[in-house]
Design a protein that fits this description.
281 residues; alpha/beta; Helicase, Ruva Protein, domain 3; 9 strands; elongated
Length: 281
């Protein structure tokens, strides 16, 4: 089959499970052929070899079974950087860029800044902050060995490993209380337990449950982090969260109850309050 034939046929087949069927097919073709998207667009009459078609068929069948495209090709772009991903780590989302951009804005004029990222995942937040804040040292904690492995791999590939420290820790458990941070940032699990089974198959069947579920009301991790973060932040330090689409008010109240000040929110591209930030006294 030619590239054009493949795009026409499988874009149609993916319409029911993907909002971007043609892009998915082109991405898989890029992976199979080892080329960029421009090559695909300029070579629509190219015929795949038998081996190339066999590999493409393997990939497209995985996609038709709802496996996320990022897990199939093994990477995802975030903040203009390339991140390795595999099953066991949450796939970076564009909404999280709002959190990273806000933290960068808050920290860019500081001479030095010591940041803690709670929940390494793929390392998207950790690595992006280290990459775009040359004045930053970032500590990144996660309870998952897979997340720490992938995070370290991404720190190396994006050339920031010398300014990032990865620690296996259940929130603050393995951190030195004598070390204080200017900023603590987190995109914790925040989906209500009862909602998990209603999620798209691409999420609930493939992405790590422990990176999604935030308890009965989705706020378990916000409660724990907000309470404990005060012991690890410098005076006037910043706590910055990504939150679910309907959680900004609840998280803001949690921060207020725990004595944080200057609490404010930032909206994502859909004009939903996606980030909540406050200062510790």
């Amino acid at each position: 089959m030619t590239i054009k034939d493949i795009i026409i046929k499988y874009s149609k087949e993916l319409e029911e499970i993907s909002p971007t069927p043609r892009l998915d097919v082109e991405t898989l073709l890029q992976k199979v052929l080892g080329v960029d998207r421009l090559y695909i667009l300029l070579n629509l009459e190219k015929t795949l070899s038998e081996d190339e078609e066999e590999l493409f068929n393997k990939f497209i069948n995985e996609r038709l079974n709802n496996r996320p495209i990022a897990y199939i090709v093994g990477n995802r772009e975030f903040m203009g950087l390339n991140f390795f991903v595999e099953e066991g780590v949450l796939i970076p989302r564009p909404d999280t860029e709002v959190l990273v951009e806000e933290v960068i804005e808050l920290a860019k004029d500081k001479k030095t800044v010591n940041i803690l990222d709670i929940g390494t995942g793929s390392g998207a937040i950790t690595v992006s902050l280290a990459k775009y804040l040359e004045n930053a040292k970032v500590t990144s904690v996660d309870i998952s060995d897979i997340a720490l492995k992938i995070g370290e791999k991404n720190a190396i590939s994006n050339e920031v490993a010398n300014r990032v420290t990865f620690i296996k820790s259940d929130l603050f458990t393995n951190l030195d209380k004598d070390v204080k941070f200017d900023i603590i940032v987190s995109n914790p699990p925040y989906i209500k337990k009862e909602v998990i089974e209603t999620l798209d198959k691409q999420v609930k069947d493939y992405e790590p449950y422990n990176a999604l579920e935030g308890g009965i009301d989705g706020l378990d991790f916000y409660r724990a982090i907000t309470k404990q973060a005060k012991d690890y932040l410098k005076e006037g330090g910043i706590l910055a969260y990504e939150v679910g689409h309907d959680q900004s008010e609840d998280v803001s109240k949690l921060m207020e109850i725990n004595g944080y000040t200057n609490i404010y929110t930032r909206k994502d591209l859909q004009q939903i309050d996606r980030v909540v930030i406050g200062n510790v006294l």
